[in-house]
Write a structure and sequence with these properties.
The protein has 9 helices and no strands. The protein is mostly helical. The protein is globular. The protein starts with a helix and ends in a 7-residue tail after the last helix. It has one domain: MFS general substrate transporter like domains (Growth Hormone, Chain: A, Up-down Bundle), CATH 1.20.1250.
Length: about 190
């Protein structure tokens, strides 16, 4: 099957899929447990947690507005790895302060870098894959990168269930995401021309 060959034999696409596999694992470790953290651990009313989530969404919207301009000014591999590293470091910033406005602003940074990441990878994939198999290659690469979402959610919940504080979940998630970006930078993706 040509789409499998393209997805798994293209070092750029495969490196990107693997980067997203780890990124999605890390992201969902804490995001799946975020409302619980805000309302049960930090004791914020649901409106404050909603405000924090809304601020996080602003970062994603802003990335959608400027993403096309950013993608055109940088090499895809460099932008993918750098935005993943920055999203990981931003995740670690959640450990500094528990004010809901601060958390919302950091979630905005995380979603900004995450969306820049997605825009860049989708653009790279469209640029490198023949149009007649693009949809199938997208399906295969998405399957690889999305496979870790439920596992990350489960693992974050498991850590909390075993008495680990959300601090530990966020710390692990931030480290994994940062390392995924560093791994991408060292992979063929990071050396993409």
């Amino acid at each position: 099957m040509k789409e499998l060959d393209t997805a798994f034999n293209s070092v750029l696409l495969f490196s990107g899929s693997m980067m997203f596999l780890f990124t999605n694992f890390a992201l969902n470790m804490f995001e799946a447990n975020f409302i619980f953290y805000m309302t049960k651990t930090l004791h914020y009313p649901i409106i404050n947690a909603t405000i924090a989530m809304s601020l996080g969404g602003i970062g994603a919207l802003f990335a959608g507005i400027v993403g096309g301009k950013i993608v055109n000014h940088f090499k895809a591999g460099s932008l993918l790895s750098s935005s993943t590293i920055l999203a990981g470091v931003s995740t670690l910033l959640l450990l500094i302060n528990t004010n809901y406005i601060y958390i919302g602003c950091i979630l905005g940074l995380i979603s900004f870098f995450g969306n820049i990441n997605v825009i860049t990878y989708f653009t790279l994939r469209q640029r490198t894959v023949p149009k007649k198999i693009l949809g199938r290659v997208v399906s295969v690469t998405r399957m690889v990168s999305y496979a870790s979402i439920p596992i990350g959610s489960w693992f974050g919940g498991l850590l909390l269930d075993y008495g680990q504080p959300m601090f530990v979940v966020i710390l692990i998630a931030g480290i994994i995401r940062t390392l995924a970006g560093l791994g991408a930078k060292l992979s063929p993706l990071g050396k993409e021309k």
